[in-house]
User: Fold this.
Amino acid sequence: MSTILLCIETTTPVCSVCISEEQTILAKVESEEPNNHAKILAVLIQKALLLAQKKIAELSAICVSEGPGSYTGLRIGFATAKGICYAANLPLILIPTLEAMAIGMKPNAKDDFLLCPVLDARRNDVYFSFFNTNTEEIIPHDCNSVDEVNNLLLQMQSRAIVAGTGVEKFIPYSKNIELVFENVIDASNLVSIGLKKYEQKQFADLAYSEPIYRK
Assistant:
């Protein structure tokens, strides 16, 4: 039986939803206006199901981006995902947001590049992690100053790409790194991670799982 996933991404200003069957994206929809997750998420889910010609009863699991990210966006995404899981008796799969971002950065990278997804935190800080182009994590996610993250990148002695909501903070260091200003995450980035976790039965506790909130 095929694995059919509903993936929900609400950590950034643009909310998106996709339906996948194995590695195939059957439908992907996103909000046209930023930061309207509460208003539009349920509508996007219904639209994606309609486009994919699937019913909730046919789903294998719900995947949701777990953060770090927008406090409001994460709460809306988690509440919606958990609600569907409870109602339809489906497992919940949590997807690390920075890993999903790294997948979205791969088309911009060559084989030897370091991928550094960054999410804006307060003051001059960012949430970040380092991945190789196979999206294998080299440095676990953390929150640190832009200066410190740049120093870590220099220590790695590898060409690097930085992208995400915190990318503008790295403009002063653009001589050393490549900056990508376009959005690098949407719900389709969650699929490959979700499939792997589904096969390994890495399901979240519906009652106690919580998002990773940014500062």
